Amino acid sequence: MQHVISFLYLVSAALFILALKWLSAVPTARRGVVVGVLGMALAVGGTLLSPEIVSYRWIAVAFVLGTVIGVPMAMMPMTAVPQRTALSHAFGALAAALVGTAEFYLRTPNLDRFTASALALEVILGFLTFTASLMAFGKLQEILPTRPITFPFQNVVNLSLLAAAVVIAVLLVLDPGRTALFPVMAGLALAFGVQLIIPIGGADMPTVISLLNSYAGISAAAMGFVLDNKLLIVAGSLDGSSGFILSIIMCKAMNRSFTNVLFGAFGQVQAQAVAGEKKPVRSATAEEAASILGAANSVMIVPGYGMAVAQAQHKVRELTDTLVRKGVDVKFAIHPVAGRMPGHMNVLLAEADVPYDRLLEMEDANSELPQVDVALVIGANDVTNPAARHDKASPVYGMPIIDVDKARAVMVIKRSMNPGFAGIDNELYYNDKTLMLFGDAKAFVSDLVKELAHTA
Ligand code: NAP
I need a surface site. Which of 165, 166, 229, 381 has the fewest CB within 10 A? Predict the structure, then answer.
C-alpha cells in the first residue's frame, strides 16, 4: 500500500507544479485549475489509504463540516475574493497549527531537535497566520475598521511579542519536556497575528493576504517535516514561494516596499486628502459620449474596480463589438493592481470573452496612449491618478499608472467624485481634456451601446 500512496503523492506533486505553471497565463488558467483540483483529490485519496488510519468516523465528520463551510465560501462574489482567500488561509493555518499541537503532546518528550524546531515553526506560523488572516478578513469585509490603528512604540511591542514566542520555541527545542511553555508560545503567536494586522490599512490588505498565503505555506511545509510527509513539504513550499512572489509583484506594482506595507500604516492620510476644495469638472451624457466614441479611430478602455462591482464586463464586451463594427480600433489597458486582486481585470474580461489580443499590459498601453483618440476609464481611479508621477506628497506617489491623461481625450465612467481605494482625490478629473460620465458602469456602458446603435 505504501507504494501506491507514494505514487499518488508523486503524481499530485507533479500536478501541483503544472497547475501553477498553467495558472500563470490567461489562456491556460482553466486547465491549471482543473489540474490543481485533480492533484488535491489524489493527495487526499492517497492520505485516506494510509494504513495508520484506525477509524474513518472523525474523518467523515470533518469531511461534512468542511463541505458545509466550503460550499458557501465558493459562492462568494468575485469582488470578495481577497477576503475569501483570507478565510481559507485562516483555516489552512489553523489546521497546520492544531496538527502541530497534537503532535507535540503525542510525542513529547521524545522529540529530536530537528523535529522540535520544525514543529515550533509550524505552530508559531500557523497560529499567527490564523488570527492575522481573520483580522484581514474582518478589515476587507469592513466588519473591523479598515483604517490603520497605531499607538506609540507599536512596532517595538509587536516585535517583542514575536521575539518572546521565538525564545520560548528555542527553550522547547532544547527541552521539549517543559510542556507548560507550549500554550504560552501559542498564545503569543495568536496575539502577534492580531497585532500584525491592526496597523495596516484596508488598501494594503490584498498584499498582506498574499504574504499570509506564504506563511501558511511555510507552516504546511514545516508540518511535512514533522509528519515526514513529502507531499506536504512540496505543496507547502510551492504555496509559500508563490505567495511570496505574488506579494513582491504587488508591492512593485504599487511602488511600495515590504516594510512600508507591513509597518507604514498606509491610508492614514485619507480623510484630509479627500476633503479638498470643490473644483469644477466637465461632464457629458451618454449621447454626447457615444458620438465622440463613434467618431474616434482608436479607443483604449481602462477597466478598474468599479467595472467589477457593477459586473459591467459583458456590457463592455458589447461596447467593444459595437465600436469594432464601426471601424474603431479598441484595446484594453490592464494595470497589474486594478481591482482588488492581481489579474482581477483579466479574469472578468476573459469571462466576457473579450479576445486576449486586445488586452495590453501597462507598459505597452502607455507607449500607445499618446496616439490614442479616447481613453475610456471604466470604474478605475487610483491606477490612473497622474499625481503618482509628480506629487511627492501623494500616498500613491511612485506607483506606476496608466497614462490616460496622455491620450487626446479622456472619458471617465464612475458614479460620483468619490475617491478609490487609496482614499485620495484624482487630479485627472479636473484636466481640460477629461469628460466625466457619471453613472453606474453597467448602466452607462449599456446606454452607450444603445446610443451607438442609433447612430449606425
Ligand atoms: P479604485 O481606485 O478603488 O477606484 C474604483 C472606482 O470605481 C471608485 O473611484 C468608484 O467611484 C468606482 N466605482 C465603484 N463602483 C462603481 C460602479 N458600480 N459603477 C461605476 N464606478 C464604480 O480602483 P482601481 O483604479 O482599480 O485601483 C485599485 C486600487 O486597489 C489601487 O489603489 C490598488 O493599489 C489597490 N490594490 C489593488 C490590489 C490588487 O491586487 N488588484 C492589491 C492591493 C491594493 P464611485 O464611487 O464614484 O463610483
Answer: 166
Q: What span, in angstroms and rounded, lies between the C-alpha atoms of 242 and 93?
A: 16
- In 3D, which of 125, 122, 140 has the Cα closest to residue 209? 140
Q: Which of 382, 405, 425, 447 is catalytic?
A: 382
pLDDT tens digits along 279-314: 889 999 999 999 999 999 999 999 999 999 999 999
Task: Tell whether omega for the bond before 109 is within 30 degrees of 0, i.e. cis.
Answer: yes
Q: Are 72 and 196 in contact (CB under 8 A)?
A: no
pLDDT for 90 beyond 80: yes
Of 212, 381, 402, the one to substitute when testing ligand 1's pocket (max ligand atoms within 8 A of C-beta) is 381
> Ligand 1: does its nearest atom lie under 6 Å from the Cβ of 309?
yes
Kindly report the protein residue whose alpha carbon is nearest to atom 16 of ligand 1: 306
Sequence letter at residue 296:
A
Length of the chain: 456
Q: Is 266 in the pocket of ligand 1 (CB under 6 A)?
A: no
How far is residue 167's CA from residue 406's CA, in Å, rounded to a whole number?
A: 56
Active site (annotated) includes residue 440: no
Distance CA 198, CA 67 (A): 31
DSSP 27: G
